[in-house]
Structures are given as structure tokens and as C-alpha cells.
User: Fold this.
Amino acid sequence: LYVWIDATFHKSTIKIATGTKGGAYYKYAEKYQKLLRKEGINLIIVETEGSVEAQNKLLAKEVDFAFVQSGTEKKSIAVLANVAYEPVWIFHRDNNLTSLKMLKNQKIAIGNKKSGTLPIAEELLTVSGINTINNKLLNLSTKEGLKAFKEKRVDVLFYVASYPAELVTKLIVIPDVYLLDFPNASAYRQYFLKNDKDYEVLKLEAHGFDLPNKIPKQSYTMLGKTTLLATRDDMSMRMSRLLLQVSEKVHREADMFHGKNIFPNVAMLKMKQHEASVDYFKQKINYLERKIGFWYAQTVNDIYSFAWIFLVPIITIFAFVVEVVLPAYAHFSRKKINEWYYVVNEIDTGLNFLTLEEAKVKRDFLENLLLEIRGTDNIPAIHMGPFYTLQNQIVTIIVNLERRIEELS
Assistant:
């Protein structure tokens, strides 16, 4: 009954913060939603302007989980896993552009203050000598940036997102739109690693999007970040473990930028790893979860843990008491009776060899001993049998001594 109640009455509705509706985060969340429904969980998707806003909602406890872009994470969040790569897409229309340093005197959309694109764009532009003095940097949302780029009101559009984000699929097919290539991407990565910031080097092959239509026309080397599945320290172990199992089903398949079974993982995490994540990557799915279902398995596992933590020590102490303490106490508390038995048995054994005087002395001794024994009131209850048997034995020996005395008189 306890297992059924504990496994049934769990939280039934949780919330996850994503990016905008057309983004990869939102599409991930929709897949999570379908899988969680099978476990009796209703996942509410909360749309945000990006990674920064998603984290703010997470820390304000407006949501339970969030997709967060690495490099933008706040110290107070707890990470469950990396779940995908996020390339840095830098769209432009000048096919002669070959580096970030050539973006001077351009109008550049770098994302709004709530997005994860903004800090990455600022970081890359700053190290390349691009700033508000020699360029016009515009804080536009994803939708605003896409519209402005299509209308040619901006020259360059920064966007950080996993494939297949809607903005990427819309722009990549436009003939006169290009991506900025990073032939020296490894140098950027090494530079930022020295500053404890991690970038991935990703490869987009020519025609990888659309082979028949040869999109894109050329291969690109790109920089990228990772998508983090994040929560708070106070999030339950059970719910966090369930989200990790769902993430395994959603993200383990091969993608345009990674092979099968690469994600989820916990490589190169900069933030604190949630305790549930530590346990999960030791054992992703246990026997009980496969056989009796997730929620029942958690209850049984908790009982098992409880048994090891509390019941086993209690049983050990109980066994020690039964096997060591009680026998020792019994031996110690019967010590007086054993001493009496020793004296009485010695008289009984040599009774037939006593002289008349010795028999009288022994009789008087046993009569006094019997009075002493009957006056004793501190004998434990467990020794009452031997206690009364001893008295009966003394009476019998006294009778035998009387006979011996009569024989010798």
C-alpha cells in the first residue's frame, strides 16, 4: 500500500523554460512533453526571449527546468546534462567576408538582452576588435532580427541555436545569404579555453542541409556552444532523474553536428552538477525501472536505501545484543547461583565419605545456606528455574546428610 501511495501521489505538472516558439529549445520541449505524458506528467512549456530570461524564471521558481546555453549560465543554477550542440550562426550577404575582423562599419544584429546570443556575440566581436565605436550593434529579438535582415536593414545577423531552429532553416535556403566561415576556429577555441570559456569546433558540410539543391553551397567551419538542461538544487531527485531519462530518448540520436549516443553527457560542465545527474550517469536505468515502471522503482529504491541506512545497522545492533550482550548478562547474573551450585555439588559428591562430625558441620552449613538463598531477592527472572532447583537440591542433600548422621551415630 505504501509503495502504491508513494508512487502515485507525485507532482503531476512541471514547467520548462525554452526559447521562442520556432527555436530548437521549444522543439525539444515538445518532444519531452510527449514522453513525459506517458509517465503521468504534464509538461507546460514556457516561452522566453532566450537563455538569460529562461534562467531568471528558473531561479525565481516560475519554472522547474530550463534549456540554457553554455557560456551564459548563472552560478546559482544546477546542471543536469549537456544535451546538444549550438552553432554560432553568423549570416551575411557579402561573399567576400572571411573573418570577424572584416565586419567593421556594418550594422550587426546581436540579439536582445534576454537572449543567449547577445553575450556570445559580444564576446566574439570584442576579441576581434569590433565594438560600438566602429560598428552599429543592434539589440534585436530573434523575430525582429530575422525581419530586419530580410529587409536588409541589418548587414549581419548573429544567432546561436541548435539545428533545426526555424530562423536557420529559413535563411540558409536564401541564395544570396552566406554564413561566416571560421577556418581558424581551433585558435578561437584555444584562446577562450585559457580564459575558462569553452567553444566547440563544428563542421557544416557542403550540401548538408539539402543535397539535391546543394544547400549550402560550400562547407563551413563553425564555432559552437552546448545546450544545457538545467534546474535548481532544490529540485527533487526523482523528477530530475525522470527528465534525464527523457533527455536520453530525445537527444541520443545522431544530429547534423554530432553522432549517435553523444548526448546527453556531462563533459566540460562549468556549473554545479545536480546530485540526481551524478547518480544518473553512474547508472542510467536500473532493473526495477525496466520491470515495474519509473515511479514504483523510485519508491522501492528509497525503501532499499532506507534499509541499508537504518534497518541494517539496527538489525546488526539487535543481533549483537542477542548473541553477545544477553548471553554475557545471563552468564554474569547467574554467577552467584553457579557459585552456590559449585559448593552444594562438592558436598553432595563427597557425602558418603563424611565422618559424623563432618556430616553435622555440612548439614548446619547447608541449612544456613538455604536460609541465605531463600532470603535473596535480586535473582533475574530468567534464572528462577535453576534458583528453585538449587533449593530443592539442597533440601534433598540435607535429608541425605540426616540419614548419614543416623547411620554413623
